[in-house]
Specification:
- The chain has 229 residues and is an alpha/beta fold.
- The protein has 2 domains: 3-122, 3-Layer(aba) Sandwich (Rossmann fold); 129-225, LytTr DNA-binding domain (OB fold (Dihydrolipoamide Acetyltransferase, E2P), Beta Barrel).
- 27% of the residues lie in helices and 36% in strands.
């Protein structure tokens, strides 16, 4: 049985090349080809596939934002003309990262990695948000919007790109209730979203310009969790 493939890339020529490569490979069948994350999302919500060839930079939502919205994870092969996103790509446990332009042999190498990998990872039942009590009301926050959480005395502060929220409580209680594998306590005062880390140096990391300390006893675990290659 052939593996079901979807291609998402805003460049028509790039989509054509990938479609041609897939046609040459008797293991693959292209079931959809889309110019944007938005146009692909409806199809991916209603059709389970095996492999997603996904461009990183596109108008509108990026490839990473599309992955964040999927309710299951097919094997992902990211494509980009840049290498800048390799670090973030492997935080998403992608099967491979193809730098454009790539040859047919390099394409087959990526397909080989996919066929050796486990089947798609279901995440349908995974909770994607939490409610926090802030400013006298309960506010829903999507996990993917949280950059990091800081302990401030008897309160915790949730940092997102658009707004910050302060809630009464302890970081330990938040850690126990934060049911999502992308978060980790890296210091007695901080929990971070591992997917938002921009760089790590010595005993600190950076998220959206904020330098956050890493506990010496936790650094090795941090490095293991971010999938260094």
């Amino acid at each position: 049985m052939k593996l079901r493939v979807v291609i998402v890339d805003d460049e028509p020529m790039a989509r054509n090349f990938l479609e041609h490569y897939c046609e040459k490979c008797d293991k693959l069948q292209v079931t959809g080809s889309f110019p944007s994350a938005e146009t692909a999302l409806d199809y991916l919500k209603n059709n389970e596939i095996d492999i997603l060839f996904l461009d990183v930079e596109m108008p509108g939502n990026s490839g990473f934002q599309l992955m964040d919205q999927l309710m299951y994870l097919p094997q992902i092969v990211l494509t980009s003309a840049k290498t800048d996103y390799a670090f973030e790509a492997f935080q998403y446990n992608v099967a491979d990262y193809l730098k454009k332009p790539f040859t047919y042999n390099r394409f087959l190498e990526a397909v080989g990695k996919v066929t050796d990998a486990p089947a798609s990872r279901k995440v349908t039942n995974k909770q994607e948000d939490i409610f926090i009590k802030s400013e006298g009301k309960f506010t829903r926050i999507n996990y993917h919007d949280i950059l990091y959480i800081e302990s401030i005395g008897d309160y915790v502060k949730y940092f997102t790109l658009l707004k910050n929220y302060v809630s009464h409580g302890t970081l330990k209680a938040v850690e126990e209730k934060l049911n999502h594998g992308h978060f980790m306590k890296v210091h007695r005062s901080y929990i971070v979203n591992l997917r938002k880390i921009k760089d790590i140096q010595d005993y600190s990391l950076v998220i959206e310009g904020k330098v956050i300390p890493i506990s010496k006893v936790l650094k090795s675990e941090v490095l293991q969790r971010i999938n260094i290659v």
